[in-house]
Amino acid sequence: MSAPRTILVVDDDVDFVAIARASLEGAGYRVVAEEAAGAGLETARREQPELILLDLMMEETDSGVRLARELRREQETRDIPIAILTAVRQVRGFDFAPNTREDYDWIGADAWVEKPIAPAELVKLAERLLGESGEEKR
Amino acid sequence: MSAAGSPRVLVVDDETGIRDGCRRVLTSEGWAVDTAPDGAAGLELAKRDHYDLLLIDLCMPGLSGLELLDALHEVDAAVVAVIITAYASLDTAVEATKRGAYDYLAKPFTPDELMAVVTRAWRHHLALEEAAQLRDLREYDMLALASEKSRLHTIIACMTDGLVVINRDRQVVLTNPAALRLLRKDELPVGEPVAECVGDRDLVELIVNALAAGVGTRLSRELVRGVGEDQTVMMATAASVVDEAGEGLGVIVVVRDVTALKQVERVKASFVNMVAHELRAPLGAVRGYLDILLDGMTSGDPDRERHMLARMRARTDGLLDLVADLLTMSRMDRARVSRTVERVELEEVLREVVGLFAGEAASRGITITYKPLADSLSVMADREELCRVFTNLISNAIKYNRQGGAVTISSDVVGEQARVAVADTGMGIPAEAVAKLGKEFFRVKNAQTREIVGTGLGLSVVRAILEAHHGRLEIASKEGVGSTFTVLLRRIDGQRAGAPSGGDGGL
Predict the structure, then answer these.
(1) What is the ipTM of this complex?
(2) What averages of pLDDT result for each successive group of 10 residues across chain B (507 residues)?
(3) Which residue of chain B comes nearest to A58, CA vs CA?
(4) Collapsing DSSP states into helix, strand and coil, what is residue B28?
(5) Measuring CA to CA, how many Å separate B214 from each of B152, B163, B202, B248?
(6) Touching check for A39 and chain B: CB below 8 Å?
(7) Which residues of A touch B451 (CB under 8 A)?
(8) Any chain B CB within 8 A of the CB of A118?
(9) How many angstroms separate the CA atoms of B162 and B155, rounded?
(10) pTM > 0.90
(11) CB pairs under 8 A between A and B
């Protein structure tokens, strides 16, 4: 492996971004972070990351889901694996967690992870998703 | 029974010796004795006065003993008479008792024989009286029962809980209006099989199970009618009814509306859920930073490490604030018993709270100013809770302010109200968010609030405290300019306790 693989983190939680950055960089990845869903699509096009970690609830309760669906529609980003992270499961009468394969397909996320997640687990998640994509796509 | 307690006897006999002898014997035994020489005189006395016992000679000139007995029975059917006869025979005795005499006494008789007969007759008289009393009592009970029945009917009809009684053949026996209302039925006709008229499978199942289970059964089940706003949640409890032999007679079902209770339960459950999430987020962040720092993932960059430690402190402070707000809220729940309402000087409270924030304001270059009203301003309040109100408002005014901004606290009087305004020069609140402020765990989320650690409970607590004090909170805000939170509380008149009363000229 020569150049580090890039991971895009889109999350408005400054602490999560700082922790994700430190742990993923510590594991040898390059981390690009955006704090608003609106900037996520543009950055993904430009940076062409190999993995995108999305927060579900940013400006809107479903910002992450919408961004994931947009990324799936775009030619340049549709094959990038996406993990949606959320701390809002079943809060505020709102449950977006998918249960079936169909749900995952509709949302377009490859993984759905509940926050908080330990830095080591986040690294494992990235490795798994990058490994998967590596096998399937090459 | 005679009022005086001594039995009264009337002796009717044409023989003076018998009359006197009876009088002597009976009087010595404590009886009150009257005598009559013939039937007509005896009847006259008996009509005028009440006698517990009559001794009547069978053979008298004029009105005979049997004729007198008949006449007496017309006056008082319960009269107790003993027939005295000189020629005792089975025939006369039978005849006399057939005509209503209690017993007979054969002449000549000894005082003991007389006493034995009259005592027996007396006991009979007492038994008759007792029976009459019991009969009266029974009649009285029936009357009471009739009114009791209508009272029960009224009680059942007015019960807020629904009542349905079902017999062992699963037919409706009794219902009340509440049952019809709760089960949303126009009628539940008596005699109708429950399965056909109740229209609720859960309720029918409950009844069938209770009938099958028999003696001493008490089964409960939740029933739901309608959806959404129109939904009623009910708790139906079925108790079996058995006779003395333990044979099942049927089931009594009580239906209680628990919609409001369920609502409270739901709100509590969702509150606990929200609190759990609000606790988890900062704990998760602190834990994440700890992992990074302890596992050496910072590549030893001291600035980065210091920043992480600062964030950990901020998130921990946020947790402590959250816990403080939660404690205040739980205190508010119990406050009806524990709130200490006293005369509180607003100026004192404000000075104290403003003082607490001097350091925090200075560290962010924020000027904090308190402009008190010249006169003293008092309100009736729980001092600790009032401090919490201003602590939360001033803390927000600093948190959501810009670097080098200002926080101005002022107080004045508007009519009956004391008014305290906390104004900041911060980012302001988007118009659409103002209405949501104070809703538990609602926080304005945008680029500017991202790094601000808040509990989402501060304004809820302020609102709840003010409500409990019959006060209110007003919010005015302009995005990019600042916000003003105004507290309005009813002020109390008069001077500060112990202060001189000015030019009022006392003695």
Answers:
(1) 0.82
(2) 68 90 90 91 88 87 85 82 75 75 83 87 84 79 75 86 91 91 88 86 90 83 85 91 81 92 83 82 92 85 91 90 84 70 91 88 90 82 90 91 92 90 90 77 70 76 88 90 93 55 37
(3) B445
(4) helix
(5) 26, 19, 18, 6
(6) no
(7) 14
(8) yes
(9) 12
(10) no
(11) 79
